[in-house]
Design a protein that fits this description.
The complex is a heterodimer. Chain A is built from 11 helices and 7 strands. Chain A is α+β, with helices and mostly antiparallel strands. In chain A, the strands form 2 sheets. In chain A, strands 3, 4, 6 and 7 form a 4-stranded antiparallel sheet that branches. Chain A is globular. The chains are: A alpha+beta, B alpha+beta. The interface between A and B is large, with 105 and 115 residues.
Chain lengths: ~280, ~180
């Protein structure tokens, strides 16, 4: 499947109220870009991938994999919306899940909470995966063009798997970083040149453009932009580039770790057995 | 970059820059790979939120009847309330349903392409209208299309395909 993201800008601050389709959309959230660009909102999300790894085969194998590996951890951004709208008539629109608690438990919760007042906290809104990939493609266009620095490769929680994966993927990651950096430098160049060509942006005086300095319109060869105009920087989604081939490495690392674990267990069992029969 | 809670003065300017750049440098069309002809679109909808001290005046620029996107962008970003405003993006949280693996996840409005959609952008506009009731067609006067982000091939398989990029995430677009 090919995913195509399109960017739109609302040019009115007073659009009509949104009508949410309850079967598809539980809520919508407007999130400031500065929150997305802020390092303090970075976190991770865990997803069970056992079914994916075993390709849906054999429930027992899947279960074993799930127990041995745990969930996969993906980098995520914790969204702090400025505005939220919930769809009507959808069960999970209730933000106060504690209403289900009996009243004495609720009381205890209130007493224990630090400020003494009851805090309603809905589950965090985590932006991760494909959607995060799309956002990063936009965010890295913002100076200082470092959105990719905060993207981390998916990994697992058990320390041995993580270490082996880190080891196996070291060269792979470095190579990707280099590739990204060269693409990034081009972006930086093009975007910064673009902004220099528009003196207006620096001093907010659109009318005081120097005669002869290039306005964005004169940069166009034709009336409508075509792909041939494009100076290809990364040319493709940055996150896609970073991930391409990564899951091969993951499979190898996981396989190696499992073998190492089994070997250690067998060796340990053998050692204990030998000690016992002495 | 600004710290949290403080509106960054540079951000609307950076955004203007970037949107012009996106409009003038469209990403290439990625053809469907032989193994699947499915295509899906999502919309990244941006807006500028006015601050308390710089509220849009009555009769603020609405872009009505302006066919040229660059002209529209210039008029829009010229306004004082935009220069002082806070750029934002729209996210949706999918409905949780039994058996729906992607229920409850944060996503962008969008969905799979139907045969009657003229192109991928038309899919994006149609899906957004259906899911959140926002009319993104130029004639509706709410928004302007400023461009696209890179198209990408996604696959649900970990094995075999050279593009194992976003394997985990394609499901919700599958029927």
């Amino acid at each position: 499947m090919v995913l195509c993201p399109y960017v739109f800008l609302l040019i009115r601050h007073d659009i009509p109220p949104l009508r949410l389709q309850p079967t598809e959309v539980a809520s919508i959230h407007w999130v400031p870009l500065r929150a997305l660009l802020s390092p303090s909102q970075r976190t991770y999300e865990s997803q069970d991938v056992a079914a994916r790894m075993t390709q849906g085969r054999n429930g027992v194998v899947q279960h074993i994999v799930r127990v041995m590996l745990g969930p996969m951890r993906f980098c995520a951004i914790d969204l702090v919306p400025s505005e939220t709208l919930h769809a009507s008539s959808v069960p999970d629109t209730a933000t106060d899940a504690s209403r289900d608690l009996p009243s004495n438990l609720r009381y205890i919760k209130t007493v224990l909470s630090s400020s003494g007042t009851y805090k309603i906290r809905s589950p965090p809104l985590l932006l991760w995966g494909l959607t995060l990939g799309v956002l990063i493609d936009l965010l890295y266009l913002f100076p200082p063009h470092d959105a990719f620095d905060v993207w981390t490769y998916p990994t697992f929680s058990p320390p041995d798997v993580r270490f082996v994966l880190w080891l196996f993927s070291y060269r792979f990651r470095k190579a990707k970083q280099e590739k990204l950096r060269s693409g990034n430098d081009e972006v930086r160049l093009v975007i910064d040149q673009h902004s220099e060509g528009m003196a207006a942006l620096n001093d907010w005086s659109f009318r005081s453009r120097q005669a002869g300095s290039e306005s964005p319109k004169t940069n166009l060869d034709g009336n409508t932009p075509t792909p041939s105009n494009r100076k290809n920087h990364l040319g493709a989604s940055g996150v896609s580039l970073m991930l391409e081939g990564y899951y091969d490495v993951v499979r190898h690392a996981v396989g190696a770790t499992m073998i190492a674990r089994c070997t250690s267990i067998i060796a340990l069992a053998w050692a204990i057995f030998r000690k016992k029969i002495r | 970059m600004s710290s949290d809670g403080i509106v960054s003065k540079a951000l609307p300017g950076d955004l203007y820059n970037i949107l012009q750049y996106l409009y003038q440098h469209p990403y290439p069309f990625v053809p469907s790979p032989p193994e699947t002809k499915k295509r899906a679109s999502v919309t990244l909808i941006l807006r500028v939120r006015p601050t308390y001290t710089d509220w849009p005046p009555l009769g603020a620029y609405s872009g009505a009847g302006e066919p040229d996107v660059l002209e529209c962008l210039e008029n829009f970003f010229e306004q004082d309330w935009v220069r002082a405003g806070d750029p934002e993006a729209l996210f949706i949280k999918r409905t949780s349903r039994k058996g729906d693996r992607w229920g409850g996840h944060v996503a962008l409005p969008g969905g799979g392409r139907d045969p009657e959609d003229e192109d991928d952008q038309a899919t994006a506009i149609r899906e957004t209208m259906e899911e959140v009731g926002l009319d993104l067609r130029p004639q509706a006067g709410n928004a302007i299309p400023v461009g696209s982000l890179p198209q990408r091939v996604v696959t649900t398989s970990w094995v075999g395909s050279r593009t194992q990029t976003s394997w985990l995430f394609a499901d919700r677009f599958m029927p």
